[in-house]
Amino acid sequence: MAIFIYLFFIFINLFLSFKDYIHPFNKNSRRALWGIVIFSFIIIYLFLSGYRNYSGLSGDLYNLQTEYEYYLRTGNSIYEGGYKIFMGVGKAFTLEFYTWRAIIIFFALLLNFYSIIRYAKNPHLVIALFFIFLIIPSAEQLRNFLAFSFFQVGMSQLIYSTKSNKYKNFIFSLFVLIAGYVHSSFYIYIVILLIDKITLKYIKILAWFVLLFCVVIFLNNNNIPGFSIIINYFENSRVSDYLNQNIRFGFLLYMFLHGLSLYILYVTMSLTQKLQIKDLKIDKVFTTNLLLIIFFPLLMVNGTFIRIFRNILLLNYFSFGEFLSLRYFHSKKLIFVLMIVSSCVMWVYLTYFFANTPYALYFPFFLDNIYFR
């Protein structure tokens, strides 16, 4: 049942992403059929809040539950202050873990749908692509999903808002700080402010230097020169656990996934630049993805840093929706959608089947859901 519902909402949203070409849906001038959007929100919420994992092969959900219950007893936690504030709400109302988690998921999902409804030119495409891949890590990694939701609101404001640059930079910085206060890894996204300060030419040069530096790191047995000083500074902390590892060849897998996003964005940008449409933001999204290459060396330390690049995927989906909504390139759009859907499937396969066993996260996502048994 879970798989049927999952596939149905992917297909119905993909179908409606072409609504401008389909009678009678093309008579609706609005960007989306809101009934389907609302139903999609409900189904995504049920998938996320009903998710359990009885496999014993993944520790994220279990660790979150253990830490939450410890916080209820003691008021202490190893997690960031922002996340502790949310746990404090659960403590104040003595909520058990899964009830509290369901409330947090509802709030975080509202933030994501706010950005989709407010800024996505093709919400159905964005929702379909979210269903294919992002829904799965969002179910397992609550703390990251909550922080990601704040980040997504700030990021969509930065790229798509028509307000002044000063205002957009302030709002983005504010939401990045909030996201970082929930999950400290999100502080790094403050570098995205550079996309308006540095030309694309210099960002490309910087990206090439980073790639060359990655070669040096690889020749140094995946040890970043001078990185031991940072590791020693964070000794005996969770940060040290992340940094004091290497995955030898595994980083190539994660670099490939981000490279795939860059390639699709580059093709999209190359096609649309000839049109000189002022409101298009595809070039900014491409520049943002290109700038994130500066974090490639972290992938050579620990594969969990793929989250840095995964967290930008929803914004990429906005850009894909921009292209699909153009009154041009009609003959290319079906091939384009097949390409981006294939890229999402590639993220699923390489993340949950190739790099890990599907019994750890992928199968439990469908089989252990309390609402779709």
TrEMBL record:
Return any one Pfam family short name.
EpsG
Q: Which domain of life is it from?
A: Bacteria
Record's keyword terms, sorted: Membrane, Transmembrane, Transmembrane helix
Q: Where are the transmembrane segments?
A: 6-22, 34-54, 97-114, 126-151, 171-195, 202-219, 247-266, 286-306, 336-355
Q: Provide the protein name.
A: Wzy
